[in-house]
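Homework help board

Subject: predicted structure for assignment chain

Our instructor gave us this sequence and asked us to write out the predicted structure in token form, then describe one feature. I got the tokens but I'm not sure how to describe them. Can anyone check?
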Amino acid sequence: MVLRGDRFTSDTDELVAKFTESISYDQRMYKQDIQGSIAHVKMLSRQGIIPAEDAVKVENQLKDIKLLIDAGNFEFSEKLEDIHMNIESYLINKVGEPGKRLHTARSRNDQVATDVRLYIRDEIDEMDEMIKELEKVLVTVANDNKDAILPGFTHLQNAQPVLFAHHILAYVEMFERDRTRLLDCRKRLNCCPLGSAALAGSTFPIDREFVAKELNFESITRNSMDAVSDRDFVIEVCSALSIMAMHFSRLSEDIILWMSQQFSFIDLGDAFCTGSSIMPQKKNPDIAEITRGKTGRIYGALTSILTITKGLPLTYNRDLQEDKEGVFDAIDTSKMVLAVYTKMLETIKVKKENMLKSASDPALMATDLAEWLVKQGIPFREAYYQLQSLVKYSEDTGVPMNELTLKQMQKSVPGAKEECLDMFRPESAVNAREVYGGTAPKEVARQIQFWQNRLGI
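My token output:
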């Protein structure tokens, strides 16, 4: 087995080889590994550490290896442990002595730290575009249904009427925070650790700034020990993806509730729903349900990397090999959710009449009447208690608040006037809330315009 040499008197046990390999999952980083190696070999040549002709042979062969892997014609070996040794071994087999010079002035410790940073950076860039597409669809759904009114909830109880568009735009705000969190994480990870070697740096006259520039890193790491042992960026991206998963889970819960017969506020395209094996009438929002379930899977990646790193002394420890599968899975899962959810939301159909009917419960406008009383000079808490009494009177008598006579209303609300009888319309309730960030149509239209401009819709 590679990397044993004369130090070891026996070959690696086959079970140990299987237990310690990572090529089964880290092979996905081949592009980043080759990218890093090309930058490294250019630097070695530039600094006169290896012959220029050797560097050219190595660079050309590395490019050929990438093409082989791209085409699916490269055979990975479990015995060679990881992506780094698989590529290096093939390289040496092809070009001989020059290939043996590639690993000069670096270690697998700083090599893998570089690869993972490059890989996550690429994935963040891809997810950023996917989140933007999701936001565009949400804004379009909001704009297409900006006159729909539904009940907003607190404690999952009917609270106050809001525009459906206002509700949808709340999720745009959440996903935009997810974007900025990932981009903020990208800024911190965009720092090149190559040149840190195993843990103490190198005795060769390397040019770390040159390598960083070749790899589009904004800076180089300041401390070699931190550079090879740092996995904060993995924790950060798993954390950011966990928060985004939580937002998807909340949106899924709303969609599941809205699509139920008890609500019947929306419908989804048949292509994004499933039926029952026994009940022919069923149309289930399985995408939303599975997404809600996958949230726990993404949380698991965050919990895993936090647990892996919590007790590690400086610097590199083999435990850190376990940093990859979790973050790879969290990224894959997040990208799948982003892709399928964006397409699903394009099929949403809003049942405006059902929404409005549910939002027309006069009790939802109780706060409006309380605020009217405050404008007449009554302290808010006193107005609140009067409306509590009115709600109870309505419930006890079985007469909806919008059907009470002025005389009946005045039993609980002495200061009530004729105009109060016309305050129980959901349209009036949303129109009255023109505060910045509120649910009034004018405010929601302003929010929609803001997002259309920001996202280039």
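Reply (TA_rk): Your tokens look well-formed. For the description, you could write something like this. The first strand starts at residue 149 and ends at 154. That's the kind of observation they're looking for.
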